[in-house]
Design goal:
Elements lengths: L5 H23 L14 E3 L6 E3 L6 E3 L6 E3 L1
Antiparallel strand pairs: 1-2, 3-4
Length: 73
């Protein structure tokens, strides 16, 4: 029979548990979902307050969310 100190056994189980969690976290990550891109037609620039914002509606005129002024593409 192998004699193991109680504190070494607890440390071994904690390290084993943490390493299993880290490995599961690394395998569960999806790097392909992080490739986000925005079409240039949805990016608007306010000419009054110089705020850049995204409006997903395909309109010719947009309202700035910061100052409320109308902007035209």
């Amino acid at each position: 029979m192998i004699n193991v100190n109680f504190y070494w056994a607890i440390a071994f189980y904690i390290i084993l548990f943490i390493s299993v969690i880290v490995i599961a976290w690394l395998l569960a990550r999806d790097d392909k979902d992080k490739d986000l891109s925005v079409d240039q037609k949805f990016i608007w620039f306010c000419y009054f307050c110089t705020y850049t914002y995204i409006n997903t509606r395909d309109n010719r005129i947009s309202i700035c969310p910061r100052c409320g002024s109308y902007n035209k593409k």
